[in-house]
Design a protein that fits this description.
The protein has helices at about 30-40, 85-90, 90-95, 120-125, and strands at about 10, 15-20, 25-30, 40-45, 50-55, 60-65, 70, 75-80, 105-110. It is built from four helices and nine strands; from the N terminus they run βββαβββββααβα. It has one domain (about 10-110): RNA polymerase II/Efflux pump adaptor protein, barrel-sandwich hybrid domain (OB fold (Dihydrolipoamide Acetyltransferase, E2P)). The strands form two sheets. The chain has a six-stranded antiparallel sheet. Strands 4-6-7 form a three-stranded antiparallel sheet. The relative contact order is 0.27.
């Protein structure tokens, strides 16, 4: 059974979204379900700070010993931070996908729509 924190929002592509203390800034990563399906993560390609991302469009990729998986932006906006620690330690996504293994922060253009609650996401992964 995957860990699905109730205080986050989710996408159908297995990304999570958390609000931050900054207005219109969200932090995102891949879910516990996704990292488990991928297996041992060995490389992460992320957009650069200042790049624009569009909701539901590819913004990076995660490579594991099994496959390469695309990362989809959960919201539209501008990348305001990336988790630099993942360059040297991509396995942090496997160990702690919701905290140390976060991917990037996005300053949103507007409030997101179409994100799933933990209960709705849980139905997809069941």
């Amino acid at each position: 059974m995957s860990n699905i924190p109730g205080d986050l929002q989710y996408t159908k592509e297995h990304e999570w979204v958390a609000t931050t203390s900054a207005t219109l800034v969200v932090r995102m990563g891949i879910t516990d379900f996704a990292q488990g399906a991928l297996g041992d993560i060995v490389y992460v390609q992320l957009p650069k700070i200042g790049e624009k991302v569009v909701a539901d469009k590819v913004c990076g990729e995660v490579e594991s010993t099994k496959s390469v998986s695309e990362i989809f932006a959960p919201v539209s906006g501008t990348v305001s931070a990336i988790n630099d620690a993942l360059a040297a330690n991509p396995e942090m996504i496997n160990a702690d996908p919701y905290s140390g293994g976060w991917l990037l922060e996005i300053t949103m253009e507007s409030e997101p729509s179409g994100l799933l609650s933990a209960a709705q996401y849980g139905e997809i992964t069941a």
